[in-house]
Amino acid sequence: MFGQEPSIAAKYALSVFKKKNDTLSKKNKINLLELGSGLGRDTKYFITESDLINITALDYSSEAIKNINQKKLDPERISTKVWDIRKRFPFKENSFDGCFSHMLYCMALTTKEIINLNKEVKRILKPGGINIFTVRHTGDGDFKNGLHIGEDLYQNDGFIVHFFSKKKIKEISDGFLIENINEFQEGKFPRKLFLVTLRKG
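RE: above sequence
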């Protein structure tokens, strides 16, 4: 659906994590949790473009995880797991330096489920850890089109999307410092998105 090239968000995220590594120690690895990894286009990018990253990739789809495993990426630096992100993560507190997800938060999740998800991300991040995620925003052409599911969720062409305002991002980000909320576009439609960077205090 999204092609094989890495997302704009992944390229941005890698630059942020590299900078974080430089401020800590160039010998340190960044332990990164990727949520909703899909077929692994961003997973592959993180692994192949930098030897600084160790990545744990989660996805709800067993086929998606199978596809990532078939890419034969460095097994010492990547682990994969089928997981429903509405459940508590199977990781200890303060386990990861960063978390990344591209359009996971704007899937068919209620605001309450997203708040709980972000609480789990906060739990597993180390102090100072970074959470970078993207969401389609309320300026997107599909917002308020199609079938209204509830809240800010609309179904178009069989896909349910949760659209975000900056107010909603602040609502779900309790306990994080919002470093920036940038806007960008992706695809031919184009989809209009926020690129959000949060830091755990």
